[in-house]
Amino acid sequence: MDATALPGHSVPMVQDDEGQNVKRDFGAFLREYPTGEDDKPYVNEIDEMKERDETTMFVNYNHVVNFNEELANTILTHYYRYETFLRGAVRDFIISKYPQLERDDKDHPRQFYVAFHSLPIVDNIRALKTDKVGRLTCIYGTVVRTSAVHPELLFGTFRCEDCGHVIEHVAQDFRYTEPTKCRNSACNNARQFKLLIDQSQFVDFQKVRIQESADEIPSGSMPRSMDIILRHDAVEKAKAGDKVAFTGTLIVIPDVSQLSGSGGRTQMEMNGGRREGYSEQGITGLKALGVRDLTYKLAFLATTVQPQDLKFGVVNIRDEGATTESVIAEMTEQERQKILQMKEDPDLYRKMTESIAPTVFGHDEVKRGVLLMLFGGVHKTTTEGIGLRGDINVCIVGDPSTAKSHFLKYVTEFVPRSVYTSGKASSAAGLTAAVVKDTDSNEFFIEAGALMLADNGICCIDEFDKMDQKDQVAIHEAMEQQTISITKAGIQATLNARTSILAAANPINGRYDKSKPLRSNIAMTGPIMSRFDLFFVIVDECNEVTDYNIARHITSMHRLTDSAVDTVYTTEELQKYIKFARTLNPQVTPEAAKVMVREYQRLRQGDSSGLNKSSTRITVRQLESMIRLSEGLARLHCDDQVRPDYVREACRLLRKSIIHVETDDVQLGSEEQQDLQTRERAPDTEPSEPEAHTDSQAQPEDGAQPASVSYEKYRQVAFQLVHHLQSLEESEGDSFQGKTVAQLISWYLAENEEELADEAAVLREAELVRLIIRRLVATDGALLDVTSGTEEERFEVPEDDHVLMLHPNYVIE
């Protein structure tokens, strides 16, 4: 250690000549770089440090290489050895300009630090071996755990308990270190020292654990992790879930976890090979451990913390602190022009949709939903302080091999702060948060789960339907309130989980059954389903043209790889545009609000009528989904207002997720038709061939199978007829005597006149309605034949003259 770094030190120390040379050369670099230019960046940085009250000077390693390559190699190879001299050079450099910064508020010598960045090589965690101990290194990984910020003793001041001599500036080597011996020559004390806290120097300390990325793990290996030690200005710069690059050095520290067991590690002191008796006390701590007993472990002492997306050229589209001005300031002039050009493109929506997951053929509706999820809605806060979700949740349900997982993988790569997990292999604690015990300090702390790691990002959950019910319940709060409340082991906390969820699920029986509603096809509870803004059902149907195009697309991907994907916008252009658009907070216009109300009413009416037979009940959450999707479309067009067109497109997407149940066609002209026709004729008359004809889809030939109509068409016509009769009964009361078949047919044709193109269509529709009325009377029992006369007399009445009323026991669904 340099004696000049320890003011007031009375003990002579050996000078390190090489260290002094490094200190001199590094001081020259700070003062003179770049050579021959008046603008000195590190001289200007002193002013910024003074203004921000910081003690760390950030140095670009490439600048050192350009100034003095030999100095740069020395720092790279022996960083830990010369770190004290580098700090001394920074301290002298700063004090030369601002002498008042020499001492802190407690009149202690102020400590300054140096942090290098922009190293040419970035290592992964698996490459950190003992040969890199003491070298300047840059590593990166995902932060999975952060500790609280604690004070760390940097330089201790001790008082000898025997003679009272004060020993200053005892350096602490990653553990509590007392003086080996009292510096008073007349005193031989080597054990009895007291720490003077008010005269010692402390520094902020935080321990962070990082884990290597999944794409760097060799086959058959487990992910490696590493403890990162952060000090002073570097603390609180990394949060759980961040992908971060750390610059610093690899160090070796004692593994004291073996001392943290119940009661600690205790040894009896032996005297002359015999035990003195029960009065002897046990000795605890590191001093009681020999070289063979005490183990060591690797840790990384970091001075610089950089988000990985800034380091490796990936754009973080969900930067929490980004504003419109800051995003524009980060862009070059060429990038600004590109965003302006994209904004003015009238076909922007389609082009951006095609640029999402370009290796997937088709599925445009799913791509639109994923695109709007990336843009997101606007987060709001009520006057009571309650937050309203702005993130959009999307669920993709479909048959096997329909590219569901590919969408999840694409989003994981597109958004830097994203987490990919599987529902079957995840527990409730793994998805939310867990309380674990630190082996070093025996303290309980919160370890982030997938939703916390994806805070301000996107959490992709595959096999969502395979999650246990108790695990699904655990994410109710996270999906709507976007918080995680935990009360366990004396810890009570509410954590943020402001994330969008993109989930993929398979149908219960492997294939989607169109004859059943969505809730019967997947293993999800109603509360979970209502928290998804969009549901997309992908059904693997045989279609010759589609199958040909998909096969050609896949073979081209395997043959031509990158050249097979032709997108309008690159991934980087999409990321920059979305990052800029997410800084906008569009407002809903009065016209758009009216459209929202009207569309919501239509959805509710269609749901309550029973005709839509939709997959889920329409609730207020669907209205909020419509608002979020509309805001996402406004952001996509860089519009500061939500316009009616955006609302209509959002409602169209929402209707796509309200899957209509497909049922078998309704058979008309079956036994009840034959029976009714027989009753219309004399008993001795042989029944003739039925003359009823429907549209081309349902026309029977002579002697062919009975006519049929789609279930949706049958429900629509039946509902209109039944609702019309019910309205007449309510308006006319007891005076209502019913309506004839001809009157009902005429009323229906008049109501739907705009949908009938010509006279032939009118005749086909009239015959279809007549067949449906027959089924409502003979099979469904919805209508009651109240034609006057005896049964034999009614046989003589033509069919169109039969009088019908609504059955009193029939309830409209």
What's the CATH C level of the largest domain? Alpha Beta
Given the C-alpha coordinates, what overall shape results? elongated
Main β-sheet, spatial strand arrangement: 3-7-8-12-9
CATH fold-level label of the largest domain: Rossmann fold
Number of extended strands: 30
Low-confidence runs: 3-9, 260-285, 609-615, 670-706
Major sheet details: 5 strands, mixed, barrel
Q: Can you tell me the number of structural domains?
A: 4
Based on secondary structure, the structural category is: alpha/beta
What's the architecture of the largest domain, going by CATH? 3-Layer(aba) Sandwich
Distance between the termini: 87 Å
Q: Roughly how many Å is the radius of gyration? A: 38 Å
Strand content of the residues, in percent?
A: 15-25%
Helix count equals 27
User: What is the mean predicted local confidence, pLDDT?
Assistant: 79
Within CATH, the superfamily of the largest domain carries the name: P-loop containing nucleotide triphosphate hydrolases
Helix-residue proportion: 25-40%
Protein name: DNA replication licensing factor MCM6
Subunit structure: Component of the MCM2-7 complex.
EC number: 3.6.4.12
GO molecular function, one term: ATP hydrolysis activity
